[in-house]
Design goal:
The protein has 174 residues and is an alpha+beta fold. It contains 3 helices and 11 strands; from the N terminus they run ββαβββαβββββαβ. It is globular and about 45 Å long.
């Protein structure tokens, strides 16, 4: 099997050295459950990249002592945040299986932490370049070998990467 044919699992690094960001709303942690008036779960809408329904841009704030800013940021949940250069590498090969959405990512003083956007994987279809690795939105996701090659060629490597074992194949249908 060539590297192009392989599937990989990608996720944000989450050591103490890495920057972790947490969502906040109106300067505070959001309520749990966090629901829209129609009963929709705000966290799920963000995870799935359907933020146009929210009426605000999700805001993530640096929450730990870590100083290493990665190409994927650890959010302690299923929301994925990607650097602009990560997204540009995906766009350069016309990768499939994802959508992006606006987010604000700031330090504790409210200054931009970098150029980031939300990244939502669309579904579990292994025929797409990005797809679920666990049957649903999750902090880790599957990526094709051509995505990993494009990221590597572009020097976009500040995230955790592991080859997917055959037993990790997603069993959900698209």
């Amino acid at each position: 099997m060539s590297a192009q044919d392989r599937t990989y699992i990608l996720e944000a690094r989450s050591t103490d050295d890495d920057v972790w960001v947490l969502i906040e709303h109106d300067g505070q942690p959001p309520p749990v459950p966090w629901l829209l008036p129609d009963g929709s779960d705000v966290f799920q809408l963000i995870d799935d990249g359907h933020t146009e329904r929210l009426g605000f841009v999700p805001r993530f704030v640096h929450a730990n002592r870590g100083t290493r800013v990665g190409d994927l940021l650890w959010t302690t949940g299923d929301t994925k945040i990607a650097s602009r250069r990560f997204l540009e590498a995906l766009a350069s090969i016309e990768a499939t299986g994802y959508r992006t959405f606006p987010v604000d990512v700031v330090d504790r003083e409210g200054r931009a932490l970098g150029d980031f956007a939300g990244l939502a994987v669309e579904d579990g279809d292994p025929g797409k370049d990005l797809h679920f690795s666990n049957g649903a939105q999750f902090w880790a996701f599957a990526a094709s070998g051509r995505v990993v090659d494009a990221l590597t060629r572009a020097g976009v490597t500040d995230f955790s990467l592991a080859p997917r074992r055959e037993t990790q194949q997603d069993t959900t249908s698209p």
